[in-house]
Design brief:
Layout lengths: L2 H22 L3 E9 L2 E9 L2 E11 L12 H17 L6 E11 L5 E9 L2
Length: 122
């Protein structure tokens, strides 16, 4: 399998694990891979009045650093812009929005090593 297809497969696996964890925490998954001109939200989830705009970052091992370390100030700004666009398009002005990252680390064999849900400062 090419490294590009392996990355896509790894990303999908990480996203599935993130969905399962968010659901376990009581979130309803509202949308996956929601796109607009400003970017994409991997997962949009809701728990009561809280709307979570979630970026999933999956790594195989720690060679290239922790998954959450890949969220740069520029990426945070894009996540915020996408969340604001979703809120505007869906009339959710009273909603409490949160930016979150689900950091997933797998081993070479594809076994989960770590999964952490982190809130991102906007």
């Amino acid at each position: 399998m090419s490294s590009g297809r392996q990355r896509v497969g790894l990303g999908r696996q990480g996203e599935e694990l993130a969905v399962q964890e968010l659901q376990r925490r009581g979130y309803e998954i509202v949308a996956r891979n929601w796109r607009c001109a400003l970017g994409e939200a991997d997962i949009i989830a809701r728990r009561g009045p809280v709307w979570a705009f979630v970026e999933v970052r999956t790594r195989r091992g720690a060679t290239f650093g922790l998954p959450e370390e890949s969220i740069t100030p520029r990426k945070r700004a894009r996540m915020m812009a996408v969340a604001e666009r979703y809120i505007a398009e869906h009339g959710l002005w009273e909603a409490e929005g949160r930016l979150m990252v689900v950091a997933v680390v797998m081993d070479r064999a594809g076994h989960l090593q770590r999964l952490e849900v982190l809130e991102v400062e906007g």
